[in-house]
Structures are given as structure tokens and as C-alpha cells.
Amino acid sequence: MDEQEEIKITQTYSEAEKHKVFEKEFMPYIDSMYNFAFRLTNDEDDANDLVQDTYLKAFRFINSFAEGTNAKAWLFRILKNSFINDFRKKSKEPSKVDYQDVETTYNSEEDAETTQTVDLRADTVQDLIGDEIANALNALPVDFRTVIILCDVEGFTYEEMAKILDIPIGTVRSRLHRARMLLKEKLKSYAKSLGYDVNADSMAE
């Protein structure tokens, strides 16, 4: 989360209220936060450090959080920006992916306007579980991996994802569509080995 944005005060909590809000609003999401952090970093220690850093920032800037609003999206945005600003620099990930470069390869103006996409929760690949899916997901560029995690794993809406990622909703849709296509391609050989017809309608774009 941008430092200047974080320090905008929307509430004034007493010390006791800060701890109450922290426990009630933020702590229930710690498992989801760790799962997201681990998917971003692919390292247990880095994930733990990222979650700790996120919660420290959440408490530090708790006065900018309005109790009863979307705490999960607020926390995920802090975590995402902490990863970009700090942890990505020292992680084992490749250099930051340039969305423009990637989307030039996989996208077109017509595709960017698509309203049809493959939802992993409804696609044949929903039956593929275990290490193959985890490995395929982890093999995606981190920025594409992020949109799949936010939507298909954590269940955020397009609107919430747009706020977390600081991008327009139309861009969210386009990137999610491309990310799902990339993931499906990586899973095709595994699906085929299990007897699925990868050319069937259920696996078609």
C-alpha cells in the first residue's frame, strides 16, 4: 500500500480499540494471507516474513481502516504492495514481469474486450488436484499467478481485485482471462495423461 495513501486518517481509535479491531477484523484472515504470500514467494520463510510485515503495517496504519468495511481486501492490498516494494527485490522470482510485454504477446484489442472466459471452478481442470496444479500455478509469471489466486482461490470480485491491484476492471478481466488460458495450457498434458479429451468443449476456450 502506498505510504501516502496509508496515512490518510479515516478513524481515530484508542489503543484498546486498535487491538480490538486488529483481532476482530484482521486476524481471521491470517491463513488466507499466508497462502497468498506463499503463492507469491514460493518460500515458507519469505511468506511468513511477508505476512508479518503486512500485519505490522496493518496495525501501524489501522486508523486508515474503517471498521466493518472489507478488511480482507484491505489486507491483501497491503500484502501485494509489500511484496512488490520489498520482498520481490530479494526473492527467487525472475525480474518483474512487464504486463505490456506479456500482453502484447498474448493479447489483442478484440480479446481484451472479451466477456467470455474459462472459469477454473467450472472447467474440466477442476478435477485435477495435487502437485501438478500447484506446480503449474507456480510456473506462471507472478503477476498472472496473482490474479488467479485472488479470483479463483480467494473469491474476490473484479471490483475488489481492481482495488487491490490498482488497475481498471477491464484490465482485470483481460489479465485473468489470459492467466487462465496460460494455466490451462500448462495443465493440458497432465489432463491428457489422466484420460481427458483436451480438445473437448469443456476444455475449449
Automatic annotation (TrEMBL):
Q: Does the keyword Ribosomal protein apply?
A: no
Instruction: List where the protein spans the membrane.
Output: none
Protein name as annotated: Sigma-70 family RNA polymerase sigma factor
Q: Which UniProt keywords apply?
A: Sigma factor, Transcription, Transcription regulation
Q: Which organism is it from?
A: Arcicella rigui
Q: Ranges for the RNA polymerase sigma factor 70 region 4 type domain?
A: 132-182
The answer to whether keyword Iron applies is: no
- Annotated InterPro entries: RNA_pol_sigma-70-like, RNA_pol_sigma-70_dom, RNA_pol_sigma70_r2, RNA_pol_sigma70_r4_t2, RNA_pol_sigma_r2, RNA_pol_sigma_r3/r4-like, WH-like_DNA-bd_sf
What domain of life?
Answer: Bacteria
Per the record, the similarity remark reads: Belongs to the sigma-70 factor family. ECF subfamily.
The RNA polymerase sigma-70 region domain covers: 29-92
